[in-house]
Amino acid sequence: MDCRTKTGLKMFAMEAVADFRTVGAVTPSSRYLTQAMLRPLPLARARVVVELGPGTGAMTRALLDLIRFDAVLLAFEINRCFTRYLRSNIPDSRLVVINASADTIQNEVHHRGYERVDAVVSSLALGLMAERPRHTFLAQLRSLLDDASIFTQYQYFHRLQMENGQLRKFCAAHLLRQHFRSVEQRIIWRNLPPAFVFACGKPLRDTH
C-alpha cells in the first residue's frame, strides 16, 4: 500500500486493523475531541509544541492553524505508514515528523536543539503500553515541561488496558496524578467512542 496516496480515513482504518496496539483507535479524533484537547494548551505563546500519535493528522492540522508562524511542531509517530502520509500530505515547514516512540521524547527533543516544551497533545493509547515504557515516557515528558506548560491526553470511556495478554480496566487519571500536581478531567460525548480528556500541569520533580 502506498501510504502517501490513500485517503486519510481509509488508511487509518486499515492500519487500525493491522496494528491496533500502536494505533490504539478505530477512527480519527472528532472535531469535538480535537477542540477539547487543544483548548487548554498555551498555543498563542508556544514556541515548541509536541504531538504524540498524530495518526493521519486530524489534530496536527488544527494545531498548525493555531500555533505561531515561528513555532515548531514536533510530531512523534511510531507507525511508519502514518509517518510517510504526514510528510507527504501536510506541507508545512513548521511540522517535523519524527518516526520514534514516545519513550525517546527527551533525546529527540534535545537532539533538535530544544531544552523545553511549551505544549504537548497526546493521542497515545497509554493503556496499551507496558508499565515501564509508560512511566519512562511520562518521566521524560516531565523533564521537558515547566509550570507554565500544559499536557493534554485522552482516554476512551471504556478504560481498557492490555496486561499480560488480558484486557483489564485502566485509569489514566490515577497514572497522570503520579506525574502532575494538576490534572483536570472532562468527558467528550461527541466522539466515537466517547472519551475523557485530561489537562495536566505543574509536573512533579521527584522520581516515580
Describe the overall structure:
It is built from 8 helices and 9 strands. It is an alpha/beta fold and 208 residues long. The chain has one domain (8-203): Vaccinia Virus protein VP39 (Rossmann fold, 3-Layer(aba) Sandwich). A 7-stranded mixed β-sheet has the order 3-2-1-4-5-9-8, with helices on both faces. The protein has a two-stranded antiparallel sheet with strand order 6-7. Strand 4 (119-122), helix 7 (131-144) and strand 5 (150-156) form a beta-alpha-beta unit. The radius of gyration is 16 Å and the shape is globular. Residues 15-24 have low confidence and may be disordered.
Structure summary:
The chain is α/β, with parallel strands linked by helices. It is 33% helix and 25% strand.
Instruction: Trace the largest sheet across and list its strands.
Output: 3-2-1-4-5-9-8
Question: End-to-end span in angstroms?
Answer: 42 Å
What is the helical fraction, as a range of percent?
25-40%
What is the overall number of helices? 8
Which CATH top level class fits?
Alpha Beta
CATH fold descriptor: Rossmann fold
- For the record, the CATH architecture stands as 3-Layer(aba) Sandwich
Low-confidence stretches: 15-24
Please provide the ordered H/E string of secondary-structure elements: HHHEHEHEHEHEEEHEE
Beta-strand residue percentage: 15-25%
Q: What's the number of extended β-strand segments?
A: 9
| Oligomerization status of the protein chains | single chain
Note the main sheet: 7 strands, mixed
In round numbers, the mean pLDDT is 87
Query: How many distinct domains?
Result: 1
CA radius of gyration is 16 Å
3D shape: globular
